[in-house]
Every structure is written in C-alpha cells, then in structure tokens.
Amino acid sequence: MNAQSLQPPLLETKNLSRTFGHGQHTVHAVNQVSFHIQPGEIVAVVGESGSGKSTLARLILRLLDPTGGEIFLQDRDVTSLHRSKDLKPYWRKVQGVFQDPFAAVNQFYTNRRVLEKPLQLLDHKPSRKEQEQRVESALLEVGLDPSDVLNKGPHQLSGGQLQRIMIARALVAGPELLIADEPTSMLDASLRVTVLNLLLDLRERHRMGIIFITHDLGQAYYLSDRVLVMYRGELVEQGPVNTVLGNPQHEYTQRLLADVPRLHGWGAALRTDELVAEKSKFESSA
Predict the structure, then answer these.
(1) Residues 70/13, Cβ–Cβ less than 8 Å
(2) Counting beta carbons within 10 angstroms of the beta carbon of residue 25, is it exposed (0 to 12), middle (13 to 18) or buried (19 or more)?
(3) pLDDT of residue 4
(4) Nearest to 111 by CA among 185, 172, 181, 200
(5) Residue 32 CB: number of other CB atoms within 10 A?
(6) Residue 81 CB partners (closer than 8 Å, separation 6+)
(7) Which residues in the chain come in under a pLDDT of 50?
(8) ∠ CA 120-163-54 to the nearest 5 degrees?
(9) What is the pLDDT of residues 217-271, one digit of tens each?
(10) What is the CATH number of domain 35-64+81-285?
C-alpha cells in the first residue's frame, strides 16, 4: 500500500446520480457513479459522446444538483450545498476549464477583467496589489506574457492562448482540484500536447488533483494515473491507466480501444503512438 492510498481522498463521490425527464422519458445521465481522487492525482474519465462524462463534471462542479448520491470534498459532505454563497468556499477549491474557451468568457471584457472576476465572485477580496500579483503569476504559470495579453480582449487571442487564459482564470482562485472537460478538443493538434504538458506541470508544482474528461484514449493514456470508463451514465470499468487501456476487461472498453481511429478522426487529433512517444520524452526529462 503506497502513502497516497493512506491519505483521505481529495474528492469522493458515492452513488452519484442525475436523471432528466420523467416517467418513460427518464434519462439516467449519471447512474450511481462512485470514485475518488487523491491530491496530486490525475484521473481521466473516458467514453463516447452521451456517456455522461460532462454531466458528471457539472455535478462535481456543483453546476447541477444530483438527484441521488453524495459528493465529499476532503471528507466533508457538500451534496446539500445549493446556494451560491454556501458554495463559494467549495469553488475556491474546485475549479473547471471547459471545451470552448470562446463560449466561456464575456467577449466584451478585457483579459484582465476575465482573470480578476473569480477573485471578486468568490469573495477573496485581495488588495489591488495582491490581485495583480495573482493574475500575473497565473499567466506566467500557463506560459503567457502578462504585458502581451492583459489589455487585449478574448477575441484578439488564438484558441490556444484563450484556453490558457481559462486555465489561468481557474488558477487565480488557488484550487486544489481542477475539472478539465475536453480542454483540447477545439485546439489544433500541434497545441494539444502543449496543454496536456501544462496540466502535468500544474500537478507537479501544486500537487493539484485533475479530473480530465475526454473521448480521446490517447490523451487519457498520456496524461492520467487512473482511468474511469463511462457508458450510458454508468461507470463500467476503472483502474490504473496501464491496466485499463492495456488489458481492458469490459466489452465496452475493448470496443473503445478497437475504435480508436474512428474516435480520434483521421488527422483531427494526435495518434496514440505519437502521444506514447511524447509521454516517454516528458517522463525522461522530469
């Protein structure tokens, strides 16, 4: 048993569920999902579109209320928290980054205001100097020059730059857990490994837990320590990444692996063999 397994989980869900609709039209978007994540661990949640991955992310971020089950943050039950003012301490520790960075920001804001907003909304109330230091530090962590981006608008940045702004916005709050929901899916293939390596760096520097939502098994292999496989709202397989993707037991996981070229799209994403090579280079340089 390793030292990490002796620690209380950073976050844990128990039989977490969310249904939509009623009667014969009921959809079990997430159905009794139980898992945990430790500090400094990266857990990938994989599955095809409609499997419940993003609904699970929204439940953990408390953007949706569960219809059953429990969510614990550092052994504290946060399931019953509903009002924004009660959730602010939770959101200081749990932040999200989403698929489409252009849809996640007010295009009329400057990037400075985009980055300062979480501090205001979450009642950090830092001094002006501390606020500027937090914003500039977050930008430097994601590889952006504050003087180059702060006074521009989101529309003046590339997709890759704006997604890094979104990661910086999450970092400003000082979270212990980051939920990254398909953060590379709208980026060019050349930028995807850059974002994945950034997430690895954040884990190493801050011992941050990361839940990485993806349909891309290559990226899950490259980034994660453990993998959860979702199918029709249920968690059908979970375990260490090398075990689940190297020797899958559930027929759905086996089918996902067999369909990797179709899932990735020809030329649309990095191939698994390219990611394996990149992972080896990253690990050897660490």
Answers:
(1) yes
(2) exposed
(3) 54
(4) 172
(5) 15
(6) 62, 87, 90
(7) 1, 262-272, 282, 286
(8) 85
(9) 999 999 999 999 999 999 999 999 999 998 999 999 999 998 875 444 433 343 4
(10) 3.40.50.300
